[in-house]
Design a protein that fits this description.
- The structure holds 2 protein chains of 2 kinds.
- Helix content of chain A is 37%, strand content 14%.
- Chain A is of the alpha/beta class.
- Chain B is α/β, with parallel strands linked by helices.
- Chain B folds into 2 domains: 264 residues, Rossmann fold; 60 residues, no CATH class.
- In chain B, the strands form 3 sheets. Chain B has a 6-stranded parallel β-sheet with strand order 3-2-1-4-5-6, with helices on both faces. Chain B has a 3-stranded antiparallel β-sheet with strand order 7-8-9.
- In chain B, helix 1 crosses helix 8.
- The chains are: A alpha/beta, B alpha/beta.
- Chains A and B meet through helix 2, helix 5, helix 6, strand 6 and helix 7 of A and helix 3, helix 7, helix 8, strand 6 and helix 9 of B.
Chain lengths: 359, 376
Amino acid sequence: MTASDTLPLQRFTIVEVNDRNVPLCLRLATSLAGKIAADLGATVLKIEPPGGDPVRRAAPLLPQGESALFQFLNTSKRSLVLDLAGSAGREALAKLLDTADAALFEEPASVAELVRGGKATPIEIAAFPVEMNAAHRPVSEFTILALGGLLHMVGEPERKPLRLGGHQASYAAGLTAFTGLTAALAARDGGHKAPAVRVSLAEVMQWVNWKAASGADASGTSPGREGKASEFQIVACKDGHVAVVYTATQWPQTRDLIADPRLKDPKFNTRAGRRQHVAEIYAILTPWFADKTRDEIGKTAQAKGVPFGPIFSPAELLDTEQYVTRGFLAKLGDYRLPQLPVQWNGRSFAPRPAPELGA
Amino acid sequence: MSGNRPLSGVRVLDFGLLTAGANTSAMLADLGADVIKIESGAYLDPFRVVGKPDDNDNWWNRSPQFRFTNRNKRGLALNLKDKDGQRVIRELAQRCDVVVENFRRGVLDRAGLGYNDLKAINPRIVFAAISSQGDTGPERMNVSFGSTLDATSGIAALTGYEGEEPRISGMDVNYPDQIVSLFATGMVITAVMEARRTGQGCFLDFSQREVASFTLGEEILAASADPAYRPARRGNRQDGVAQQDTYKCQDGRWIAVTLAAADPALESFCASHDSEAAVATLLAKGIAAARCNDGVDLLRDPTLAGVTLVRDDKGGLVKGLPYRLDGQGISIEHAAPDLGQHTEQVLRELLNYDDAALKRLADAGVTSTTPNVGEV
């Protein structure tokens, strides 16, 4: 930024249309894309149905009863209530679309055709690829993870496939919609016709999970959840757990870190050998962790260039020295939340509180 | 390449490696940017090595993982540690709009190719530095690899079977590495717009760990408001959802089901039906259900794949787009480059190097088309 009081997207106006009866997983993606643009200075007008976005009531809740999910996803926006079931609401929306640069909306929305035909560049969030012709198929974030192959990758091979924590399908799609939005704005800015953007959660998850397709294409067999057969496992330590992670080239440092002579056995020298004897490796590694804290393990491993990962809970991240030093967690009233994960010439983008309904 | 795509006219100097960096540049290429990828004989993109199918001749040009991520780029091999290599890169940087890099912090600074060096010769440059922990703070020099960040970001703490230990996405997903480019690309585009408007570039400092923690924003916010808030690992269950899990069907396949009202009979229903029939029945009742696909399923179903997988001009399977623009995916104009494939072409085209100048660089080992180290 050239001046401290300007924000990079502040000359753009974006309408975020939240219609009634849209699957929550799409709503989260749309909201995240709009939030990022708003934190970067765009005027983001969030259209809510009478009674408000249902995310206003979604868990987790803050002590006063507001939704932490809503607060996180709607920072720096403005809110406008429109009843899009009525003609007055639709006319008001059409007018807003005439002057906005872009409009974020969801495929099953009753106003989808209206938004696609407006002057604002449409950024559409859907559940499925166009080819599936499934605009109204029942969907959840969880079934998207199944379709995209992510569930198949996590857990023990003989047990249930597991989801990743958080709203990963919706949020990865929200990040994608943000990038699509900026591409559209850049085209408009450069005097080109902006492309209409369509993001489906299923395609984003498949794209994220490309190693499954790449692996299956190369070998005919899909990679999948390996659990206790994996080279990367979770080990208990004195005050929690640590993810044991190292690349093939980091094995010598890893072996030296643990410093157990049994690891010098030549059968562990190749990756194939280590995979074959993975249970034996972990039988040797595990006791090393038992009397050390996550902090000690993280620091000792990093000193040797070994990327072990101490496991932290969201609450513990609030006190993480790295996050505190970088100012990653912004104050929002009495609370704190992550800012956009980027610094621009050393500056962060402090979010403003999410709007009250219609404010 | 047509001249009216969103990033037509934007040129990217790409030092990106593996997924986080190299895929950010790939997404810029997808939008019309001219991406020139810099490697060297002394330092290959590690994907050329970890994905190599064998040790036979030309192994460094045959990694499927490298091919997946670097299509539609031109490839140069210039030695970053050599003074002449550094000089050539500085000359290239004067003709570029964006730098993308995910080296360990300090590597480019030591080569005289850091942001301050390049800004001095090209004030418009947008410099995207992607690292494990960001460019500042006590952990800035930390190394990580994919699932390290599942652990340190908070995602692993919320992933796992009910009441059991945490879980990571693992080396065949490395989830935190996959999502960075989805955000970083949009930030680079934002900064390019601002550079066009003001004539000033900027330094964009991305911490991959922060990107992963950002996806848990509501959990961190809730924890800050209530010290007693301790979300537990609950398998596939989710707040606000009556019943949600994976169920094994008669054909041995797992399906994922999300129910608005609990149904204790669901497990036995699934166990007595094939997965396809079970999913169809549930969908017809208005219940969200899907089979747990694996990589082979994804390859078999082009309808589901949408625009996410494409074939390059050599027939190789490569990464497509995570979104579509005007309904379209991308066409692959050229396959991922062989090491140093376009060094001469680009130096002639952008810097007017002649045969003699190119020969001097090749003779001095500044440029190359073969690795001069075995492992990286």
